[in-house]
Amino acid sequence: MPHAGPSASRPGEIAGVLRLLAFLVLAGALMVLDYRGGWLHATRVRAEAAMQPLWWLAGLPSRAGSSLRENVVTRAQLASDNARLRQALLLSAARNARLRTAAAENARLRGLLDSAERGRLDVQLAGVLDVDLDPSRQRLLLDAGSGSGVRVGQPVIDARGLMGQVIATTPSTATVLLLTDPDHAVPVMVARSGVRLVVYGTGRSDALQLGDIPLSADVREGDELLTSGLGERFPPGFAVGRVGALRADDSRAFLEAEVKPAAQLDRGRDVLLLRGYRPAAAASAGAPGAAAAVPVPPPAAQPVEPAR
């Protein structure tokens, strides 16, 4: 029996080939015409404009991923930069604080040396190693001792006035008893009137006690108190403090007052040890036949002026 499949499908195949050839010819003609005359330019422009939203939507996931990656990287970089800047700021603040501290210490040191130069005093500079400002014990520990010529009983001053005296030494250190120690007393005189009194320590670094003031004594609030030189423990003429408000004591027979120390007992890293003056106690402790102690006050017995 004859096979009818190929003969039945041949007309359809020929028609498809003809249509394809027609489309190819039409496409070629359009390409030539567009190339030579630009007939399809407007059509392409409108087609591109119509396809723009589709292209934008197609590229949206890629753009979102890139933006997210950039944001993450930028945030991490900003956090790192912020941490580094905070560290640099803290370091700068610490350096500035050290510079301010050094400047303040230099100013105090210049004040000490200037006061010694103005008074033409023979002094030795010593640094403060430790401070004990307990109410029952007011002491300083210095970094100079008997090995550098420090003696027991040697007066200690700063740029503003008297601080105390050396009470013990080792070859490398010295212990200073401050004026404010409860066991300390200093003979003083009122600079204005010459009245002689005694100032006692209170256990507070910012206050001394002036007691047993006769009611008739010429003492006023604000008077400056200087060492009198009595007892030959301290040379005369060094500032001790200023008299506060006067008040009657418990017996009503005398007056008393609080005194603000002239020296800065609770601050500073350096002090001056006064040389050229040998206290009476030190003289009496010397060899037999030693000469009596002779006070060597500063010129004209003037108090040490505060550093400016």
Q: Can you put this structure into words, describing what you see?
A:
With 308 residues, this protein is an alpha+beta fold. The protein has 3 helices and 12 strands; from the N terminus they run ααββββββββββββα. It starts with a helix and ends in a 24-residue tail after the last helix.
A few lines on this structure:
The protein has 308 residues and is of the alpha+beta class. It contains three helices and twelve strands, in the order H-H-E-E-E-E-E-E-E-E-E-E-E-E-H.
Helix and strand arrangement:
Layout: H1 5-37, H2 41-119, E1 123-134, E2 137-142, E3 155-157, E4 162-169, E5 174-178, E6 185-190, E7 196-201, E8 208-214, E9 224-227, E10 239-248, E11 254-261, E12 270-274, H3 280-284
Antiparallel strand pairs: 1-2, 1-12, 2-5, 3-4, 3-12, 4-5, 6-7, 6-9, 7-8, 8-11, 9-10, 10-11
Mean pLDDT value: 80
Global Rg: 49 Å
Low-confidence stretches: 282-308
Helix/strand order, N-terminal first: HHEEEEEEEEEEEEH
The CA-CA distance between the termini, in Å, is: 136 Å
Query: What amount of the residues lies in strands?
Result: 25-35%
Characterize the largest beta sheet: strand count, sense, and whether it forms a barrel.
6 strands, antiparallel, barrel
Q: Which features would summarize this protein structure in a list?
A:
disordered C terminus, six-stranded antiparallel β-barrel, six-stranded antiparallel barrel, 308 residues, 26% strand
